[in-house]
Every structure is written in structure tokens, then in C-alpha cells.
Amino acid sequence: MQIENFIRLISRPILFRRLGINHKKNIKDLISRLKTKSKYSSYPFDKYPPTIANYSFFRKSDLKWFDFYYSVYGKPDHNFISVPVYLYIETCLNKRLLTDAVTEKNFYNKFLTGIPTPTSLLRRINGFYYDENFQKIDRKNIMTLLGRHNKLILKPSVDSGAGHSIFVFENKNGILNNGEFNLNPEFLDRFNKDFIIQEFVTQHSFFSQFNPSSNNTIKIFTYRSINDDSVNLLHCIFWVGAKGHFLDHDHWGGFGLSINAENKINKYAIDVYGNKYESVNNIVLSSLDKVPAMDETKALAKKIANNIYYARLLALDFTVNSDGDPLLLEINCWRNAIHQYQMHNGGLFKEFTKEILDYCQNYQPRFVANI
After folding, report:
1. Of 88, 137, 215, 309, most Cβ neighbours within 10 A?
2. What is the pLDDT of residue 24?
3. Contact 156, 164 (CB under 8 A)
4. Alpha-carbon torsion 311, 256, 196, 116, what sign?
């Protein structure tokens, strides 16, 4: 006997409540900060009614996100998407059970052939150690493999969002150390997740000039159309880390810089609270030439998204090495941050807004339990 219909009836309202509770405090804090600096403006709802207001998953609390994005972006856009609505849309467009493996960094080289990534040296997959070529390696040989490298980065192979549990180790007198821990088999035994260890990428000078200590990255947000299955690049953001940090996430004090269709950086950077800066590290943003390697990076993003069939929304992270070659760092399918896209560029889904919302309006989660 199937109980699918009953689960459908209760799943959507439960999901809405959870998403709303989690983000109410966040948006109140963001708006409060804008008001403190006299940068807050109420969205003109009468003149520019929100598109999402026409759909059943809209909640009155979503309007506060319109106030925030309007205050930072500076122009009304009826296609703004609130965070709770976006997270619901993700569940409609990305099939989690079929895409979880996509986020496993150890398998990028397996299912994405021809996509360049940083050199991988050691992997732990399901508790066992493997080398770059997926050959098993004995624990006692790990340091022989790693010890000849000057700088390494260790990342969980799954769920390293916002920089959690990422370590950079430098070789000092034959010992790999991050200032707190030595990299050795005992440390890896205590690290309770599967991981990947890669050579630390020396960035292209254009990107490193903003912050040499940070792994500054390009994030490209893609949408695979419900209607015709085409892959569309919606936003490109260049992430710059805060001074002294090797992570570039804005929650660590970093900035987002939008890259437009002509591969030029927007005239200002924006932090997590919506504050704008016309220069970063004494570099006036409006004076910059085109961002190098963007055409190649965009082509890689399209190629990757075309090979991922069950996730229509992706955020792809890239770095550009000293030779000007873009390298894939991470594929994000879930809980993607959307603030920077809309603070810089307006509505999240652009001309695809109605197409996406119409689909999600009629979407029914499929849960089947056989008894």
C-alpha cells in the first residue's frame, strides 16, 4: 500500500515553516544593520509588485527580502527571490537523491572527464586512502607522498561550504603545518570525514592582487531550463577573501564582485551586510581591464552543467592558476547563497523567473513507501 498522497499533503507546509523560521532572524538582522547606517529603503511594492506574490509558496515575510535587496541593489526588481522561496525552488529543481554524489570532490575526475582541477595527491573515500589515480595507498606511505610538496590544501570531499573544515598546510623544515596542527597520519585519523588533499594553486596575478593570502574564486550560477533543457549562465561573482584569511567567503569578512557579460568587474564590491566599496586592497574597481580567462571559465561551467542532468541549479567554483588556466574547485547543488547575485544584479532568475515559478507551483514531491 502506498502512502505517497498523504506525504504530499503534509510535506509542503512543513517545509515552508522550517525555511521561514530559519531565516526570519537573519533578514531582521540585515535590515537592522542597513537602518543603523541610514541605507535602508522600503521596496515600492505598489509600483513593482513581486512576481512571487502570485504563487502559493509566497509568504508575507518574503517581502522583507525585497526591502533588503532593493536597499543594496538600488533599483526595484519584481523578480527578486527571497531566501526561503529559493530554498524551496531548489527542492523542486534539484533531485537530491540523484545529485548527492555530484558534490563529492573525489569523483570529479571520474565523471567529468576533460575538466581541469587542481592536482589531487591523496583521497580518503569511504574510510580508505587512495592516490591521485584512485590506487589504494597504505597509511604508512602517506607522508612519503605528501612530504615533498611545499603547500597543500585539505578539504572535506562533501560539505565544505563556507569554508568549514578546510586546512592549508605549508612545509617548514620538512614538516607540513598549518600553524596549529601537523599534517600526519594521526591528524588524518582524527579528521572524521572523507577528504581530498590537493596542491595549493598559485593564482593568476590579476586575482591575487586583491588579496594574496586568499584563494579568491569565481562562482558561476547556472540554470538548466525546464522548458528546453538549455544551460544558461545567470550570474558570475568574483569572491575575494578578507586580509589574513585564505578563504574567500563573505561570512569570513570577504567581498563579492560581480563580473558582467563583457567580463568586466562591477564598479563596487559588496560584503555580506550589503556595504559597498569602490576599491579593494587599494585597487579602484572601475579602473580594471577585463577579467582574464573568463570566456574559458564560462565554457567550462556550461560543459559541467550540461553533464549534470538531475540538478537544474548549480553554483560552480573556479580558480585561475598562474598560467591563466581555469580549474574547477567545487560543485554546489544545495543551500546555495543567493545574496551576492541579487545585491549586484537584481532578480535571481532573470527572464526565467516565471518559467521556474510556474513549474514549482505545480510541483509535487514524490515520496513512495511500500508497506
Report:
1. 215
2. 87
3. yes
4. positive
Q: For residue range 38-81, list pLDDT tens digits in order.
A: 999 999 999 999 999 999 999 999 999 999 999 999 999 999 99
> Which residue's entry shows cell 570525514?
193
Is residue 217 within 8 A of residue 203, CB to CB? The reply is no
Question: For residues 229 and 221, what is the distance between their CA atoms, to the nearest angstrom?
Answer: 16
Domain extents for the chain? Answer: 4-80, 96-111+203-356, 120-199
Nearby residues of 17 by Cβ (< 8 Å), 6 or more positions away: none
Residue 289 to residues 190, 277, 292, 326, Cα–Cα distance (Å): 46, 18, 9, 18
For the entire predicted model, the pTM comes to 0.91
Calpha distance 178→42 (Å, rounded): 46
Task: Cell numbers for 100, please give them.
Answer: 548527492
Residue with the bigger pLDDT between 242 and 149: it is 149
Which residue type occupies 110?
Answer: K
Position 14 scores a pLDDT of 53
Secondary element (H or E) of residue 295: helix 294-306
pLDDT in tens, 130-151: 999 999 999 999 999 999 999 9
Which three three-digit cell numbers place residue 144?
612519503
Q: CA 320, CA 282: separation in Å to the nearest integer?
A: 22
Is 96-111+203-356 CATH 3.30.470.20?
yes
Strand residues in the chain grouped as ranges (E): 120-125, 128-131, 151-156, 167-172, 175-177, 195-199, 217-224, 231-240, 255-259, 265-270, 276-277, 279-280, 283-284, 313-320, 326-332
Residue 8 makes CB contacts below 8 A (sequence gap 6+) with 364, 365, 367
Cα–Cα distance between 59 and 85 in angstroms, integer? 9
Whether residue 93 contacts residue 312, with contact meaning beta carbons closer than 8 Å, is answered with yes
**Per-residue confidence at 101, pLDDT binned at 50, 70, 90?**
confident
Residues 6+ apart with CB under 8 A from 339: 83, 250, 272
CA 291, 292, 294 angle in degrees (round to 5)? 80
CB 302 within 8 A of CB 100: no
Nearest CA among 198, 279, 211 for reference residue 245 = 211
